[in-house]
Amino acid sequence: MSLLRIYAPLGDAPLHCEWVLIEARQSVQGEGGLADLPRGADRVQLVIPAAQVLITRAKLPQGARRRAGSVLAFAVEEATAAEPDANQVSWLGTTEDADALAVLDKQGLRRWRDALEGVGLRAYEVHSEMLLLPRSTGEWSLAWDGGEGFVRTGEFEGAATGGGDQASPPLSLRMMLEEAQLRGARPDAIAVYVTAPGVAPDLAAWQRDLGIPLHVLGAWDWRQAPEQAGISLAQERRRWRIAPAALASLRPAAWIAGAALAIHGAALVADWMLLGGEQRAVRAQMETRFRRAFPDAVAVVDPALQMRRQLAAARHRAGLPDGGDFAPMIEKVTIGLKELPAGGLRTVSYESGRMTLELAATEEAVLRRIAARLVQTGLIVDITGTKLITVRAL
């Protein structure tokens, strides 16, 4: 059995690539244009760089675990702080009391799919470099190139790291250990694999900083992973074309399906009309309750929003704080920004229940985790670029 692995950075135009062909326990490595890729391999894998795959947790209903597309994308919307349609989400498995999900950039995958289809490759698996890293029970595995890397923390879990050097470990690794300590899942040790020559960390300094044993297990990269390593995040299969004769034989079934769709469409329209009527009735009920509570109101445009504002004003008159005041909001923001290093927060501005945070240049993965943490504290989060975060109370 032969295996062709192709390294596929999602942010780059797929014009050329690095690859390795593994066959009969021997491997051949190469780099070049897609048209020059080896042909005839029994299996083909796209290896996505670790930093471009977000692995997160969510609690899913049993029936949603094997589904893909927008259904799972909505489950990680808070963690990604992006539109669900922008991500491809795959269920990896169950870990502890939650489900592990892998999030990839859908547009980047589409570019590679189109490019590979253009050179005749239509069937392949998608793997994360992170989950190819070997792992022993009770330990974490860290791949390190001297400045950044990634850590595999479980069968289905891992994360990218950065911001460290030979004498000091990444801050994100330290925070991951603290979080694991709170869950009672702190590892016994960390195995370190170097991905560039001469970049092994100072184990004594790292152990003092992290408070955990480390040991270097040598060099590693994605080309060396065993054939059965990793977990497939997605699978593209060869597209089949229907012959004209077979298409003609399916015409009666198509008419039946069309009639069924027409009936379903009529039922859907009726359902939408019913829901619209219920929505209008609920809004009228909300408006009636608002006018009953505040009879002096001149106009009612948004009863829910106006009710929140009136309640906030009533709390202030009674000398009580409101969730949209500066003090409660800054307390929640402090919890959400605990991952930022010193100097990571540049300015904070507040006006009428809205707080704007200006950050220093921040990695996208860190920014997503900050947004998810802020949402968990009960704030509405809007992200602009990579530096501005706007939060509002619910």
**What is the tally of helical segments?**
10
CATH class of the largest domain: Alpha Beta
Q: Which blocks of ≥5 consecutive residues have pLDDT under 50?
A: none
CATH fold group of the largest domain: Nucleotidyltransferase, domain 5
Give the CATH architecture of the largest domain.
Answer: 2-Layer Sandwich
- Average pLDDT score: 84
- Tell me the strand order in the biggest sheet: 3-2-1-4-8-14
Q: Into which percentage range does the β-strand content fall?
A: 25-35%
Number of strands: 18
Q: How many strands, which pairing sense, and closed or not: the largest β-sheet?
A: 6 strands, mixed
Decide which structural class fits the backbone: alpha+beta
Number of domains: 4
CA radius of gyration is: 26 Å
Oligomer: single chain
Percent in helix: 25-40%
Shape: flat
H/E element sequence: EEEEEHHEEHEEEEHEHEEHHHHEEHEE
- Cα end-to-end separation: 56 Å
Outline the structure in words.
With 394 residues, the chain is of the alpha+beta class. It has four domains: 2-132 and 232-236, 2-Layer Sandwich (Nucleotidyltransferase, domain 5), CATH 3.30.420; 139-219, Nucleotidyltransferase, domain 5, CATH 3.30.420; 283-320, no CATH class; 326-393, Eukaryotic phosphomannomutase, cap domain (Hypothetical Protein, Haloacid Dehalogenase-like Hydrolase, Chain: A, domain 2). It has helices at residues 70-75, 77-80, 106-118, 171-183, 203-210, 244-249, 251-293, 303-317, 326-336, 364-376, and strands spanning 2-7, 16-23, 26-33, 43-48, 54-58, 87-95, 98-105, 124-128, 139-144, 148-152, 158-162, 189-194, 214-219, 234-236, 345-351, 354-359, 379-384, 388-393. The strands form four sheets. The protein has a six-stranded mixed sheet with strand order 3-2-1-4-8-14, with no helix packed on it.
